[in-house]
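Z., the sequence and structure:
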Amino acid sequence: MHGFACWFDVDFIGTQTTVTLSTSPTKPTTHWYQCRLLLSKPIAVNASQVIKGSIHLKANDKYSYDAQIQVQIEGTAIETLSEVRLQDQVYHYLQSSQAASTGVYDGISRDNNM
């Protein structure tokens, strides 16, 4: 396991209506995007194993967040700890949410051998 893909949904609940902001890769693109949280030390996980852990976000002086990630294979001593500075992430790796579902990035298929 090398990391996580992350996004969020938030509901703004008004008196007349609820508006949902989603950064899911299957929804229309927003300026928030998705992010990758890569582990500094990947761990090998078998299909039958369960992972558990936590992601703690702390505001930093860059108007962003630092993510402290802890992952462990349940029932073992195998664990990895990482810290990711979200302002250092490359968010713009997809140009549209359609790219995630179709595999087409800027008109080029990811299956294209160019």
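The beta strands are 3-6, 9-13, 18-22, 35-38, 51-59, 65-73, 79-85, 104-105, 108-109. The helical segments are 97-102.

Let me know what you think.
H.
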